[in-house]
Amino acid sequence: MPSLFKNIPQSPSESNVKQKNFLLIPRSERRGFFVLFTFMTALGWIGGGIASLALEKILRENIPDYFVQNELLWFQIAKLIATSLFALIFAADQSIPLNKYISGWSWMFATAIGWLVGNTVSTAWIAYISSMAASTNQISPQAAIFFAILPTAAYIFSGLWLGLLQWLVLRKQVKCAWWWNFVPSISYFFISVSILFISLVQNFIPAIHRDITLFLLTQGSTALILAVIPAIAFCRLRKNNYQ
After folding, report:
1. Which helix (H) or strand (E) holds 159?
2. Average pLDDT of adjacent 10-residue blocks, the chain of 243 residues
3. DSSP per residue over 74-137, as a string?
């Protein structure tokens, strides 16, 4: 016999409970999450950047005796150590607002490793592309445009590594998380667009303040994009236990 209660409409309270159960970030918590995630991401970007630059400077100024004859190798190692510190601080700050919804530790390690891999790959590709352009004696206008766009493309696609590592964490707790693989690349695309826009308007900035203004605009827009786009994406995720 069909249930008499099957077609009874849900009360608003029951609907809200059901909605809260299937959304990773409940609607009532989205604003607070968005603000906190944006703040912590920006804090991680600034704090991690300052800490990594300071550490790299210290390592460069204190070369071990073993590397005295090979300073270039030591500088590369110092750069890797400093980048690792940045990635860890950046990921740790992001994991604080996320710890309520997913495993903060898993997110921290996945983001740090993904950032390191992506940064290493993009740096290697950009260096290779630059060496190819420099070794070419005569470059046509079309080739010049190609070599100008290619490093940006390498930077954008390097985000797939970060997205992949983060997806490995999210896929265990949310439904249909495959599209997260592309979220960092989307962020990198908008970062590239913002940097292009800033470069186009730099001549309108007084020369005496241009360098510091460009630095602040570039770093600020980068931190904001790295926070806003993932925060919006998190609000679209649904839990695996939704029925």
Report:
1. helix 159-170
2. 46 48 86 95 94 92 81 87 94 94 93 93 83 69 72 89 94 89 96 92 83 90 95 91 50
3. HHHHHHHHHHHHHHHHHHHHHHHHHTTTS-HHHHHHHHHHHHHHHHHHHHHHHHHHHHHHHH-S
DSSP state of 62: S
DSSP tally for the chain: helices H, then strands E: 8, 2
Q: Is the Cα torsion angle 98, 104, 110, 115 positive or negative in sign?
A: positive
> What is the C-alpha separation between 55 and 182, in angstroms, rounded?
31
The helix (run of H) or strand (run of E) holding residue 38 is helix 30-61
Comparing C-alpha atoms, which of 174, 46, 34 is closest to residue 103? 174
Q: How far apart are CA 228 and CA 39, in angstroms?
A: 10
Which pTM value belongs to this model? 0.83
